[in-house]
Amino acid sequence: MTTLTLPAVAKLNLFLHITGRREDGYHNLETLFQLLDVGDELRFSLRQDGAIGLDCNNSELINEQNLVLRAARLLQQYSGCKLGCDIYLEKHLPMGGGLGGGSSDAATTLLGLNKLWQLQLSIDVLADLGLSLGADVPLFVRGFTAFAQGVGEKLQPLQLDEKLYLVVTPNCHVSTAEIFQHPDLIRNSKPIPPGEVLSANWRNDCQPLVERLYPIVAITLQWLVEYAPCQMTGTGASVFAAFPDQTSAQHALAQLPANCHGFIARGVNQSPVWAALADTE
Ligand SMILES: C[C@@](CO)(OP(=O)(O)O)[C@H](O)COP(=O)(O)OP(=O)(O)OC[C@H]1O[C@@H](n2ccc(N)nc2=O)[C@H](O)[C@@H]1O
Ligand SMILES: Nc1ncnc2c1ncn2[C@@H]1O[C@H](COP(=O)(O)OP(=O)(O)O)[C@@H](O)[C@H]1O
């Protein structure tokens, strides 16, 4: 095998509770990660000379900080592999919107190159490598909808109804670091008792602060709630609502405010990257 094309899907945080701050400054969370069936696409082509190249439909993303390049270099270094690759990233997901696109791209890179370079590293090893790139990467490596604790790396798979979501990203960039450093962030939520995840009070502890600091997020939620109950994902700025069918979701999407980007996606219990990898067997 010399080429491989794989998806890198988005996630929603159906709830995000912050239960405390750790000594290293990071926060312990409890969150319900819902994978979606839409996202970016990555194409990998094997190189024998060990070099790693990146091309992308968004030229701003072609730089050494791209999580795709960082994941590829990390894997090459860890495994001692002498092979290289050219990677084309077709970016569809809004960036920095709480949809985990960068983390998902990194996870797909780890999974894809593990295959293309025939490394046969275990999923546990890939998830640990991924965690050093970002808190959400292990979720996308494991590829199942899950209840998460810690900074998001302790994952328990969950089977949820595969609902239809409208995801709306207002035209603003929320800094994750700014939100977590803010003195007014709610960071003392009680942990959910074992077995009560599905009946817990689902809310996003970052949402009140983000709505105050970024009024466009509050305005977007006020627009969306006219159609269905809605919430913010991650540290924002994207918001989402579940709809009973395509027609009602399309109806809301057609009324989207001018300063927003929106798409419809289905929640999935298993990441499409696993089906795509299985097709290559
Ligand atoms: C909170 C979540 C929920 O999905 O938000 P989104 O990024 O998806 O919006 C993520 O876990 C975010 O993960 P990620 O986006 O990888 O965050 P990082 O780049 O690792 O962290 C940026 C900064 O946020 C703070 N941070 C991040 C995660 C965490 N659990 N506690 C923190 O305090 C740290 O100050 C860190 O320096
Ligand atoms: N492949 C990538 N795709 C998107 N963003 C990336 C990528 N690599 C690095 N980044 C950087 O990571 C930041 C967060 O990206 P993203 O994962 O899309 O958002 P979030 O963490 O809010 O869900 C972006 O603002 C961008 O600067």
Automatic annotation (TrEMBL):
GO MF, one term, reads: 4-(cytidine 5'-diphospho)-2-C-methyl-D-erythritol kinase activity
* Sorted UniProt keywords: ATP-binding, Isoprene biosynthesis, Kinase, Nucleotide-binding, Transferase
Q: What catalytic reaction does the record list? A: 4-CDP-2-C-methyl-D-erythritol + ATP = 4-CDP-2-C-methyl-D-erythritol 2-phosphate + ADP + H(+)
Q: Where is the GHMP kinase N-terminal domain?
A: 66-143
Active site, UniProt feature: 11, 136
Q: Which family does it belong to?
A: Belongs to the GHMP kinase family. IspE subfamily.
State the name under which the record lists this protein: 4-diphosphocytidyl-2-C-methyl-D-erythritol kinase
- Species, as recorded: Rheinheimera muenzenbergensis
Lineage from the top down?
Bacteria, Pseudomonadati, Pseudomonadota, Gammaproteobacteria, Chromatiales
